[in-house]
Structures are given as structure tokens and as C-alpha cells.
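The following record pairs a protein chain with its ligand, S-adenosylmethionine.
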Amino acid sequence: MKARYISLGPLIDWRRVNRPIDWNEVFRNDDPVVLEIGFGNGEYLIRRAKTEANKNFVGIEKEWQSVWRALRRIAQNQLSNVRLLKADARWAVHHLMGTGVFSEIYSLFPCPWPKERHVSRRLFSNRCLKRLNNSLVGGGVLWIVTDDDVYANWIKEQSEGSGFQVLHEFIPPSFGTKYETKWVNEGLRQFHKITLIKKQDSLFMPEGEIIVRTYRVSEFYPNDFYPDPVRGNVVVDFKDFLYDSNRGKALLRAVVVEDEFVQDFWIEISRSRDGRWHIKPASGCGWIPTVGLQKALDAVYAYCTKRSEQTGAAKQS
Ligand SMILES: C[S@@+](CC[C@H](N)C(=O)[O-])C[C@H]1O[C@@H](n2cnc3c(N)ncnc32)[C@H](O)[C@@H]1O
């Protein structure tokens, strides 16, 4: 059987590029750039990229399988005007997108998270809408299609003070995506379309770039290791702790909640050749450099330093 290769070329490795991303540089032209959030299998994104060759298309999606399917479609259609980001949009819109860069942003059937306790997981919160306003060009349009009445009204409420004029209409199916087909098969004949037209800047100040510091401590005491949790705008809880004395390595699991964004990752504390201990987020956990992640590292560092002082003093006395 003939092997099939799918180029990873259209997938942007956002850990290695300058942020915010310079789309003119990425596409090597200054054509308008359109962003789709949560593209799923990418049917609509690819269809538009094929028919609107004078525009560039960027898709964000958090699931690998979806990204993979979209990459396959890009390869099959030999498209050069599409790029994909495998990222959580709740983080990416704040850290990767830049200001005044998109002519249009849209999302088809975003997860409505209907349960009250999951409201914080919804995309298109007031903070997110303000940020999306910033990343649109003047007069740019953000539109969202949903089957969910509650979610449609929630988005309208969230748009308060975001600099958008809001239009609400009902439209028939026309996108041909997996979720549209699913709802049509379940009998739905029309969907909510919320169109937000940028009328003024939202005055939202983007957060600065976070640089994750690696800490060094001279002593490390692994017994009963439990740094204090962090409370406030950012919530950090420390969970499991694993220690391997032979390898001089410990792993501490941290759960960081900041705004609508949750990260669950391991912090590595390892001894280097000079005998000192390094505290850093462990590689391979898919963490993202945020204020919350920095606070988690700060808390571990503060705890290690405090224990080092206490235990050192106890040893001396
Ligand atoms: C209900 S599906 C809709 C998919 C597609 N637009 C369609 O119409 O078939 C929602 C999609 O958004 C993606 N998604 C949900 N939350 C996301 C987030 N925070 N960042 C990026 N993608 C997200 C999901 O992985 C999923 O593919």
C-alpha cells in the first residue's frame, strides 16, 4: 500500500515563533486574514480557503485528531493560504494574536457548556470578546453560529462594553460541518447567528509576554513536601508529589486556574551537576506560559527556600 504523507507545514509551532504572531510574515503577503475558532474537522475552513484564494485563513483547534484531519484536507487540496494552531483558544487569543490583524473571526457551533458549574469554560466571555475586538481591524466582524438558545443570549449579554454592535438573526443550515449535520439530523432547521461588528476599540489591555523563570535552590528537602496553595485571581493547588532519590528528581503536580483557563501539569525539581536543584515546569506536559504558571513556580521556590532555611537552622542548633 502506498504510504501517505501529510505535511505538518501548515501547523504553526507557536512555542517557537515570535509572539504575537506576524501573519504577514507567516503568509508572506498582506492579504486579509480570517480566523476560525474551534474548526473541528475543518470542512468549512478548507472550503472557504479554496474559494477565497485572495484571503489567508487561520484555524485554532484544541484537539489533535481534528487538527490532523484538517491537515489532511489542506494537503489534498494543496492549499497555501491556511495555517493551523493546535492550542486552547482561551489562551491563544490573549497571547498569540496581536492587535488589528484579522478582517473576520468566526466560530461554528462552539461548545455551549450548558451546566451552570461549567459556565467558566465557555468561549466568548466578556474578556474574550474584548480581546477579539482588539485583534480585529476597524469595522471587522466576529460571527458565531450556535444551536443553543441559552448560549446565544449569553454571548449577547457578554458583549456589553466590548466595542461591538450586535446583530442576532436565525439562519438555515449552510456550512456542511460535522456538528451542523448532527443538529440537522436531529431535526433542527435553523440556527442562531450572532454577528458582532467592531464599532470602537474595546480598551482591553493585552497581557505582556510571560517568561517562565527556572529557579535554583541549593538544598531540597523532599519529606512531607507540600507548598502552600495560592489564592486570589489565580488559584494554584498542589496535588501529587513523586520523589526518586537515586536520580535526584522530584515531580509535583500543579493545577492552575486563571480566569476561564485551567492547566494541570507537573513541576520538575531536579539536581544538576553542580549539586543545586532546579525548579521548572516539566517538559512534555503541554503547559502554557501564563501568569498562573509563573505563580505556581514562585510558590514552589518560596516553599523550598523557607524549608531550606528552617531545616538548615534546625541542623545547626
Ligand atoms: C461542537 S464542536 C464544533 C466543531 C465544528 N466547528 C463543527 O461545526 O463541526 C466544537 C469544537 O471546538 C473545539 N474547541 C472547544 N473549546 C476549544 C478551545 N478552548 N480552544 C480551541 N478549540 C476548542 C472542540 O475541540 C471542537 O472541535
